[in-house]
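2024-03-11 09:14:02 INFO worker-7 job=invfold-0412 stage=load source=structure_tokens
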């Protein structure tokens, strides 16, 4: 992988499009793959993705195509930003066109239903790539703010520190500051679990509760995330950093967060099906809460927030009943 080169970004949703802007600002040639031909045409003709980031002008270094083979030809870095639950099927189609020495970078924040695998594990399984070719970027990165070039930081995680540093250079733009780590597991679990906590916080907001309630849910959510991550072997400091606490705060605090917004609608009484019907955006926490709960149960970790969020999303409990259940839990020492 060269210091600057061609990057293929899959796909042209809000985060994939925003990150293509970061990569182009950092000096890379970027080809954005779009599922629909009309989206690729709009990006090439107007340098804008009106369906996901209206009003944001993309740099000249960004082009788009609906042909995955064309997008991947000559790319030494492949960035994946698809919904986590569709990764396996999509990647199986794209894998034959990925260069054997290309680094594959996941921007996704989820755990696969059924297998309970993290996205890096799915990538390894489908492509056969080794850990030195698989990286994760995670942090407090709301797509619209990134696209507006508001200052932000993130974490590049790869088992190979040299590769992590190379990717860091490839996406260090005037407005985007990446740090590095080798703790891929911690970054992925922090990124996936914060979506579930974001749903819980959104429900509290939707019910009309204030800052004391939301701060309590955020703090206990961080503790729950850390319990699971550490039980699986993550570095606890990762959960205190950008990919843990940083991402959690952004998701739970911002109305731009899909997961918080989804939770607010649940708190206001909408059903999961009604929310899905009202938006084209994917709230990863609603898709991954059951798999994260299953992962916690398999690991023997107490996960009350994941348990109750899963129950609300599935329609077995109301948001109000969830909040009552949190308060009714047996009291214990905070460190337990």
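2024-03-11 09:14:09 INFO worker-7 stage=emit residues=336
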């Amino acid at each position: 992988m060269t210091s600057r080169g061609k990057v293929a970004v899959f796909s042209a949703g809000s985060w994939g499009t925003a990150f293509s802007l970061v990569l182009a600002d950092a000096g890379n040639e970027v080809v954005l793959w779009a599922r629909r031909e009309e989206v690729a045409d709009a990006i090439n003709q107007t340098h804008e993705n009106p369906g996901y980031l209206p009003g944001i002008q993309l740099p000249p270094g960004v082009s788009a195509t609906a042909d995955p083979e064309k997008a991947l030809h000559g790319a030494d870095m492949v960035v994946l930003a698809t919904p986590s639950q569709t990764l396996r099927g999509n990647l199986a189609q794209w894998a034959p066109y990925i260069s054997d020495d290309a680094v594959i970078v996941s921007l996704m924040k989820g755990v696969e239903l059924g297998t309970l695998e993290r996205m890096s594990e799915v990538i390894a399984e489908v492509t056969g790539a080794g850990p030195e070719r698989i990286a994760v970027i995670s942090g407090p990165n709301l797509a619209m703010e990134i696209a507006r070039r508001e200052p932000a930081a993130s974490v590049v995680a790869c088992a190979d520190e040299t590769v992590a540093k190379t990717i860091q250079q490839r996406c260090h733009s005037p407005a985007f500051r990446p740090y590095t780590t080798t703790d891929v597991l911690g970054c992925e679990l922090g990124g996936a679990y914060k979506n579930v906590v974001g749903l819980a916080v959104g429900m509290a907001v939707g019910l009309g509760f204030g800052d004391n309630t939301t701060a309590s849910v955020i703090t206990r959510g961080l503790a729950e995330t850390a319990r699971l991550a550490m039980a699986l072997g993550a570095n606890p400091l990762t959960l205190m950093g950008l990919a843990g606490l940083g991402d959690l705060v952004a998701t739970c605090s911002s109305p731009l967060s899909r997961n918080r917004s989804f939770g607010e609608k649940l708190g206001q009484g909408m059903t999961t099906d009604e929310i899905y019907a009202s938006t084209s955006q994917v709230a990863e926490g609603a898709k991954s809460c059951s798999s994260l709960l299953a992962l916690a149960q398999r690991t023997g970790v107490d996960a009350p927030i994941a348990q109750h969020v899963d129950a609300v999303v599935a329609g077995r409990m109301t948001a109000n009943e969830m909040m009552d259940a949190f308060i009714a839990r047996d009291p214990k020492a905070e460190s337990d």
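2024-03-11 09:14:09 INFO worker-7 stage=report msg="The first helix runs from residue 14 to 25."
2024-03-11 09:14:10 INFO worker-7 job finished
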